[in-house]
User: Fold these one by one.
Assistant:
Number 1:
Amino acid sequence: MVQTIGRPPPGATLIHVAVIDDHPIARCGVEHALETVADMTVVASVAEVAELQRLLAGGLEVDVAVLDLYPGGGTPAIDAVAGLAATRVLIMSTSARPPDVLAAVRAGANGYLTKRCDTSVLIAGLRIVAGGGFLLCDELSDVAHALIAASDTSRPRLSPREDQTLRMLARGLTHSQIATQLGVRKSTVDTYVERIRAKLGVGNKAELARAAIEREMSPRMAAW
């Protein structure tokens, strides 16, 4: 069943959110969490990606789709992520398995949270993803860091500071926030990022974040 929530007022600057989860209670939970957030509105709540795609084809405006990776608890909906290529996607799943995270990111997801995250993390994640950034929640960042393998000479080498910067970008931090944590000037972080982009051959922040995840998770995928 498709439920289309009331559209935002004309001219309002809001983040239009769609929720895709086969559990009605889970969808209601997200709707409730966002109903008092001034810069967000839930414009659609559906059980399947196909339902949202029909609404999008009908002209519904969606900035971020919050997608449950395991509808029905069976197979991860990686194809569904790719099927929403025209919309930014924030995964919210019970799974924290590195293969699921990596597969979703490779399919085009712009962020990944677990359902254990606080509401504040969901709200922050929606803002980051809607603004063109990428977010990996702290729980998953810890998982990723635990999977770092020995140096792989087949990949570009980053300096320790460049590696730190890349990991922080994957967590959704801004250049200014990274500068504060590293105790350096923002211009220094800008330089680190330019060097990382040149070495890895990537462009925007989302691509940098995906590169970070692939660098950290790929070497031990076979162990999962």
Number 2:
Amino acid sequence: MENTIPENVTTAFEWLGGEDKVRALVERFYDLMDLEPAYAELRAVHGSDLDGARQKLFWFLCGWLGGPAYYTERFGHPRLRARHLPFAIGIKERDQWVACMDQAMRETGVPEALRARLHESFMNTADWMRNKGG
């Protein structure tokens, strides 16, 4: 398992392995959300169809990780907090989102050092997205 940034990569997108690996991560994340009872509250705020969410997260993560800017090309600035205000996001949803992403990163083979860095960024962002108590 790679614990340091490989010398030949300049972005987290490259370190992860490009679009195919981002797609695999996103697919596993939403599959786990559907499958694991531990993520029930998180799943409930996503509505019945996850296809749009899967695509938007893929587009967003590609650019956020330093790859193609698919999301901003389509929608402009992500405005993450504003776009998520219609959804009730509290501590439970935050923690479930981060736990689900951690599990997806482990199961799709994200290198340990990258996983640790992404976990910290995901937690900070998820905490910033909270818009309800508890």
